[in-house]
Specification:
Blueprint (H helix, E strand, L loop, with lengths): L1 H36 L4 H4 L4 H8 L10 H4 L19 E10 L2 E6 L4 E6 L2 E2 L14 H8 L6 E9 L5 E7 L6 E2 H7 L4 E2 L9 H14 L3 H4 L32 E6 L4 E5 L19 E3 L2 H6 L8
Parallel strand pairs: 3-6
Antiparallel strand pairs: 1-2, 1-5, 2-3, 4-8, 5-6, 6-7, 9-10, 9-11
């Protein structure tokens, strides 16, 4: 009997062990399934592996830009018509009105409208309130009217006394950009005049005007021009004032070029010959200039008194 009881106890223990083993195996399987189906933890989201790097790279970044191009007015000084990089400077707009050859109105992309006066040139008058239409004025006006409805780029240099923006106007894209101020001079539809305050493209403007004059194109072939800018040989800097000087460059350069803004006249005064010489106070803002010779003064549109 004792043997049979011991056998029964052993079998019971074996059976109990099997039951416990099966129970523990089921719990382990449930825990494994839970691990496989649970969402990623915060630690997984901050992974630095390749996949995580790829995901982060799609997020937009903000770069702080600094430098003169971002904080200053247009700066690259162009020395010629080619390779100007035109699209990088100034403001774009559309020409909506043309008053005459050197005066037009542009509606800028921001909606503002401004009347522009082209720098470094003077076209014959067509709409002056007190002057008749001048020779070749209609041709100059018609030529600039080609810009109507066109997009242009404007580089401005302040305002004149009438509130107009003193401007350089470019047409076309970077590759085929044209400086309209110079184009009018090339076609003989304007004379060079910087009113004593030459702009950044004054050199190429003067060259274009002289070339048109020598070639006898446009107004140079058809008009009697009182203020005929006779070409003056190029001189080294400091040797004379072929385009006029704002300040007296040398004691020997004593000819005063006086602009009368009220009468719209330009007269030069030679010391010892002009009775008004001592009374002329040189005013840079009004376009007064010093000259070394009569030829220089007359080349820039000034005449002797009494003529």
């Amino acid at each position: 009997m004792k043997l049979i009881r011991n056998i029964v106890v052993v079998l019971a223990l074996i059976l109990l062990g099997l039951v416990i083993g099966l129970a523990l195996g089921g719990q382990e399987e449930e825990r494994g399934e839970a691990v496989r189906t649970s969402p990623p933890t915060a630690t997984a989201a901050s992974s630095t592996g390749p996949e995580a790097t790829s995901t982060r790279s799609t997020a937009p970044t903000v770069t702080a830009i600094s430098g003169s191009e971002e904080t200053s007015t247009p700066s690259p000084a162009l020395t010629g018509m080619e390779g100007s990089g035109a699209g990088s400077e100034g403001a774009w707009g559309m020409v909506v009105r043309v008053a005459d050859g050197d005066t037009l109105t542009v509606r800028f992309d921001n909606g503002a409208e401004e009347t522009l006066r082209l720098l470094d040139i003077d076209t014959p008058e067509t709409v002056h309130p007190s002057k008749p239409e001048e020779c070749f004025g209609a041709q100059a006006s018609d030529y600039t009217k080609r810009l109507m409805g066109q997009r242009v780029r404007v580089e401005e240099k302040g305002r004149d006394r009438y509130g107009r923006l003193l401007s350089y106007v470019w047409t076309g894209d970077d590759e085929g950009s044209v400086l309209w101020n110079v184009r009018l001079l090339e076609e003989g539809l304007a004379v060079y005049n910087d009113y004593g305050n030459p702009g950044r493209y004054a050199d190429i403007s003067r060259a274009a005007a002289e070339k048109a004059l020598l070639a006898g194109v446009g107004l140079w072939s058809a008009c009697e021009i009182e203020e005929n800018p006779t070409p003056v040989a190029t001189q080294p800097v400091g040797a004379g004032c072929p385009q006029g000087c704002v300040s007296q460059p040398d004691p020997s350069c004593r000819i005063k070029g006086n602009v009368n803004t009220t009468r719209d006249t330009k007269i030069y005064h030679v010391e010892g010959e002009s009775s008004s010489y001592g009374r002329v106070n040189m005013k840079e803002a009004e376009g007064d200039l010093w000259f070394c010779t009569r030829a220089e003064a007359e080349a820039n549109g000034f005449r002797a008194p009494g003529r």
